[in-house]
Design brief:
The chain is of the alpha+beta class. Helices cover 29% and strands 25% of the residues. 28% of the residues are buried.
Amino acid sequence: MTIEVRVPQLPESVADATLVSWHKKPGDAVARDENLVDLETDKVVLEVPAPAAGILTDIKLADGTTVTSGQLLAVIDEAAAAIPAAAVPLAVAVPGASAPAILAAPNGATAVATASAPGGAAAKLSPAAKRVVEESGVNPGDVAGSGRDGRVSKSDVLNHLAAKDVAAPVAQAPAAKAAVPQPPAQPKAPPAPPVAARGARGEQRVPMTRLRARIADRMVQAQSTQALLTSFNEVDLKAVNDLRARYKDGFEKHYGVKLGFMSFFTKACVEALQKFPSVNASVEGTDILYHEYYDVGVAVSTERGLIVPVLRDADQMTFADIEKSIATFAGRARAGTITMEELTGGTFTITNGGTFGSLLSTPIVNSPQSAILGMHKIQDRPVVVDGQVVVRPMMYVALTYDHRIIDGREAVQFLVTVKQCLEDPARMVLKI
């Protein structure tokens, strides 16, 4: 019996997807629920599992093809899975072998031993890593994966290649030196004029991924359709640091997650959003849509680009709920297992460029939202407190907002509220 493998139903907001890479080839045996192919949308990478065990007899579409919901991808022969084990050649991996080898099976039958092939390792390659592997010709089985379940990322492959480049000249240096004969002494020629050294001037043209293209479209859309303006303030984080230092061990022991800065900033932003509803609103045509809920997006950087998972009803979440959700989102986003629903919506966004060392920036609004808060690097700086110069852990914060519906007064007061909540966290508990 043959089973058809089709493109799963895509979300309403996604018209099509790109077939990134097959993890199997025709003739390969597949297990039920084993990932066959990756489909990249403009937000996430979807895995298409095998609906049944059998032999993959036919692949209908090649890598790079644009596909839509319900489109036929491949065919599996389910009957092939019922062949008795004694009649199926045994595939035994032989390290270092470059071609199949014949071994004697315990029952006297002939068995096939194959080398550890790129296909096996490819199942753990991220889409970006697969492209680098194909371009460089490196054996993916030689690359140690640092991701979840041994998943190999692009940086793992690049680090592997860099290590090989460094090791090769060292290994070849003695042989190269011995192979060069010593020429007889010659009269010295006049020195040649110096030639300016020129490095490699290669170029590489790579198509944008769907996610990168989507990010580009949204950024240009925000710049061209909104009246964007950025206001700044700075926050003394000594109170937050002291609170984290006092309770971090007990918090982690009780909740199983570290007490970070993002939960404080999320709570502070919710307090400010409740006081200034226009910052939590959006524009629809000639109307202003005021949201009476607080779905806060938290920007997460992945090797595919920036994505924004959403904390639904952040006003009802505890500090522990926020920290757990962010940790889960970040892990799943980098592993490529986050869902479309978790990236959809949001009424306000927080982005933290400080994790990469940014001291100051002007973030771009995540349209159709109307504002975004940018966090930055915490830096010890001298400040005046009660007439005395003291050193405090300071952070610049930036609010980029749509000036069509948010006045400068509201934007500045929003930042002041965030500042007050962080410099005196008791305000968030007492709601003052």
